[in-house]
Amino acid sequence: MAFAKVTEIIKESPAFTQLTDLAAERLGGKVLFATDDFFAEKENLIAPTRGVFITDKYTDRGKWMDGWESRRKRTPGHDWAIIQLATSGKITGFDIDTNFFLGNHPPHASIEAINITNADGITNWENLEWKEILPKSHLDAGSQNFYECNSTEIYTHLRLHIYPDGGVARLRVYGEVFKNWDAVAANQEIDLAAAINGGQAIACNDMFFSAMGNLILPNRGANMGDGWETKRNRTPNNRDWVIVKLAHKGTVDKIVVDTCHFKGNYPDSCSIEACVSETDDVENTAKWEILLPQQKLSADTIHEFVSQINPSNAITHIRLNIFPDGGISRLRIFGKISK
């Protein structure tokens, strides 16, 4: 008997995939409910990285799969799952990724959304006033499936429908964090760079080993891959850099540079520049000023800088420079918003 082989479809990522993944587990997203996750747990939907495949790995229920997979439906209806976003936000697009689900992916999916102040105690998710933000759409097997979202409303929870059953490796929900800045006091210290507050890593010169967006995720890095790491550079006096758009214009009181897990590959030193700009086209056009002069770094260490910070007015963007190369786990820019 011949077995059909389906090869993975490689698609170009649209621009919206550079935005924040509002559903990401690492940011605080949760999968609250699924009608069926017999073969593979619903929580995998929002796990980091794309799903993987391990050829000979099985469970007592069947083939182990890195995603959410329901059993073959023998009754009317279809399966669905509830995702609580890490933070309320405006959604720009989706990636419904069926990576490695080849003979068992759903042919179609749709997404509904709702804004709920408090979801505690909800048991009957079907009775809520959901709004469809992605109509029933085709899914390719073993592939990322990108779809734009045209809604401009703010949402907190999603319901992913798959028709009629099957497996989805990952769901990415790209958009802009919504934060009620009116509720933040003028003297309240806040991490102006944090992704959960709306900060974004928007550009860098190198992220060979790991992504720049990891720098502003919550908590300390889980491992060396959970940070921003550049390749080894042999050029004399090299400088690698990353630009972060702050969640809100503000003044800076404290900076934290964490080299957690980076032991033989931490940067020798770092500095931070700052600017004020109404656009994100800042790399070569902004007037950068030194916020933090060059400081020595150590392996696997939380570095806190307060007195070393140069006094400055409110800023909108920062540029972290590392010399000559290496890895930083987290960057915190603590300060007060400018109202």
TrEMBL record:
Pathway assigned in UniProt: Nitrogen metabolism; (S)-allantoin degradation; (S)-ureidoglycolate from allantoate (aminidohydrolase route): step 1/1
Catalytic activity: allantoate + H2O = (S)-ureidoglycolate + urea
Family annotation (Gene3D superfamilies): Galactose-binding domain-like
SUPFAM superfamilies: Galactose-binding domain-like (SSF49785)
GO molecular function: allantoicase activity
Keyword DNA repair: no
InterPro entries tied to this protein: Allantoicase, Allantoicase_dom, Galactose-bd-like_sf
Highest rank taxon of the organism: Bacteria
Assigned EC number: 3.5.3.4
Domain Allantoicase: 28-177, 198-337
Keywords assigned: Hydrolase, Purine metabolism
Family membership: Belongs to the allantoicase family.
HAMAP family assigned to the protein according to its UniProt record, in alphabetical order: Allantoicase
Protein name (record): Probable allantoicase
Native species: Flavobacterium myungsuense
Gene symbol of the encoding locus: alc
